[in-house]
């Protein structure tokens, strides 16, 4: 199966051509980060407009770089949700147009299934496996008992990890997106400020980061009121250590409880050096195989959408041409749906 995949859920316009859910023939990405930077976050209306400006070019480039012809394609995949509704629509309209013009099946795809199946572009997955999804909008532990079976066993009750990173960075007046800046600050800190850990109930796999975020803001305000200089690096490191400790503990506990053969780290925050290092050493110590995609496949890209869409293609489950954007799409719901096109 040769799938052309389109991703426009947030601020990256990306198109890829993927063979059999595993081999990347092309994966072109146009990022809007610079456009949104001066607003300190993604502005939905601007995101949609930018997608419209570049989507056609991205499709042409992805085809050209793949070395394939349009007639070689087997299906058109597109991110159906979750994401910004206006941004999603741009990809969906482009995908429908291609599917109709080329008379190919259309496959609406779940964005988080994409982040998880990004691992399949570089590793052999073994089931059951556990996915720790850490991104701008999601923080989840997902059990995959078999290929394409998703069971959410834990999720954030408030902020996503990436969101907490970006908010903390913003209060330190660091540019958007703040995650990488906090990561860098933390790595040069000589000490870590003591901050709370949100373990929640003893048996819970859920997460919560808003209390930690408030604790960080309180430190910043108090330091300011006292007229002291803030040790930003120590604060960044304290924040990062709190986040990482909880993520690592809960992920490893979930791996043991469900007998997972592998732990998959997925989503944009998988780029965090502190998190990668902590998970790597902990998994080594406990003999758990850890899979992490290369950086370009951790953040938003269409290759991962092509990898996830292959699950549906194999089953012959296609979407109808009146497919709608699903801004808050459920992962379990996506795989259960068997719409025939
Ligand atoms: P979702 O996938 O949930 O819809 P998204 O697609 O916007 O959200 P991603 O593109 O997967 O999110 O990831 C972006 C997030 O990753 C941002 O919040 C960014 O700050 C964070 N991030 C990127 N690099 C790092 C890093 N080194 N450390 C911490 N966070 C990081
Ligand atoms: Mg992004
Ligand atoms: Fe994402």
Question: Could you describe the 3D structure shown?
Answer:
- It is built from twelve helices and ten strands.
- It has 341 residues and is α/β, with parallel strands linked by helices.
- The strands form two sheets. A five-stranded mixed beta sheet has the order 3-2-1-4-5, with helices on both faces.
- Helix 2 runs parallel beside helix 3, helix 5 runs parallel beside helix 7 and helix 7 packs antiparallel against helix 8.
- Magnesium ion (MG) binds next to loops.
- One of its GO terms (molecular function) is iron ion binding.
- Its cofactor is Fe(2+).
- It catalyses: L-threonylcarbamoyladenylate + adenosine(37) in tRNA = N(6)-L-threonylcarbamoyladenosine(37) in tRNA + AMP + H(+).
Features:
5-stranded mixed sheet, binds magnesium ion, 17% strand, binds fe (iii) ion, 12 helices, 341 residues, binds adenosine-5'-triphosphate
Précis, in short:
The chain has 341 residues and is α/β, with parallel strands linked by helices. The protein has helices at 33-37, 44-66, 85-102, 111-117, 161-171, 179-188, 210-226, 232-257, 273-286, 295-298, 303-315, 331-336; strands at residues 2-7, 12-19, 23-31, 75-81, 106-110, 129-134, 139-144, 151-155, 262-266, 290-291.
The strand line-up of the biggest sheet is 3-2-1-4-5
Helix content: 40-55%
| Mean pLDDT figure | 96
Q: What percent of residues are in strands?
A: 15-25%
Radius of gyration: 20 Å
Q: How many β strands by DSSP?
A: 10
- Please summarize the sheet with the most strands: 5 strands, mixed
Shape: globular
Structural class: alpha/beta
Q: How many H/I helical runs? A: 12
């Amino acid at each position: 199966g040769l799938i052309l995949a389109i991703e426009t859920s947030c601020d990256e316009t990306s198109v890829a051509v993927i063979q059999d859910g595993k081999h990347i023939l092309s994966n072109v990405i146009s990022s809007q980060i610079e456009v949104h930077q001066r607003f300190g976050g993604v502005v939905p209306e601007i995101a949609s407009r930018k997608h419209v400006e570049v989507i056609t070019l991205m499709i042409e480039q992805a085809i050209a770089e793949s070395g394939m012809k349009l007639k070689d394609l087997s299906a058109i995949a597109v991110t159906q949700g979750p994401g910004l509704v206006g941004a999603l629509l741009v990809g969906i309209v482009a995908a429908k147009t291609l599917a109709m013009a080329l008379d190919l099946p259309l496959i609406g795809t779940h964005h988080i299934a994409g982040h998880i199946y990004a691992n399949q572009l570089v590793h052999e997955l073994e089931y059951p496996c556990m996915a720790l999804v850490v991104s701008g909008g999601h923080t989840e532990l997902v059990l995959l008992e078999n290929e394409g079976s998703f069971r959410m066993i834990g999720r954030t009750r408030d902020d996503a990890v990436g969101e907490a990173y970006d908010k903390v960075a913003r209060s330190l007046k660091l540019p958007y997106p703040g995650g990488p800046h906090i990561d860098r600050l933390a790595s040069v800190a000589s000490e870590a400020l003591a901050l709370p850990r949100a373990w929640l109930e003893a048996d819970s796999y859920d997460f919560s980061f808003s209390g930690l975020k408030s604790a960080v803001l309180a430190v910043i305000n108090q330091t300011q009121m006292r007229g002291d200089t803030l040790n930003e690096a120590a604060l960044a490191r304290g924040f990062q250590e709190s986040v990482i400790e909880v993520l690592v503990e809960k992920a490893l506990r979930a791996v043991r409880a469900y007998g997972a053969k592998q732990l998959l780290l997925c989503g944009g925050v998988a780029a965090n050096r502190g998190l990668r290092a902590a998970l790597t050493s902990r998994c080594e110590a406990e003999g758990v195989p850890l899979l992490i995609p290369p950086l370009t496949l951790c953040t938003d890209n269409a290759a991962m959408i092509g990898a996830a869409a292959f699950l549906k293609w194999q089953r012959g489950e296609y979407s109808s041409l009146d497919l709608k954007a699903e801004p808050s799409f459920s992962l379990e719901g996506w795989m259960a749906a068997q719409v025939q096109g």
